[in-house]
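Recap slide: Glyoxalase-like domain-containing protein, sequence and predicted structure.
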Amino acid sequence: MRTSVPVSSLAHATEVATRAITACGAAADDHLRVDLRADRVFLTLGSSEQATVELAQLITVAVPETEPYGVQLLEIAIDALDIPAIRPFWKAVLAYTDEGGADGPRDPIVDPDRLGPAIWFQQMSEPRPQRNRIHFDVSVAHDEAAARIEAALKAGGRLVSGERAPAFWVLADAEGNEACITTWQGRD
């Protein structure tokens, strides 16, 4: 459940966030996510359905200026023949974690900070070489690139090309889906 509040400054955003946090009390730490910006505060609740409804009611009283927020959730699906073979690669190359309560070899993976989209895997019954495949560019700090590449290789990936390093390295999972680890170095 998500709502937003228009604000005039970061100071105003802090005041709105404080009211929402106070309304939720001790439950805020486990159930409320707050995104502060100079023009808007986003309040997101995620927990059991009953707790979410109760906390939403408390926030609505404490922060009556909330506005409906259009629900949009971006998830990325990767078609695969052998999900257990490619899932560790994507978990490593994106530095993602298992989704809470879903840590099986075919389950989705998520950004530990919940900023990036969830990645899930769709079982293919046969190869579809004519269909579009995916390609991610994962931009990391230059001093993190080597560790990210190493983790992806240990997770079953392979190095396709390091020709443009340190601007980017092209990696692929066991089925040939590619990802580039990129840095700001070596760019025009």
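The first strand starts at residue 2 and ends at 6.
The mean pLDDT is 87.
(End of recap.)
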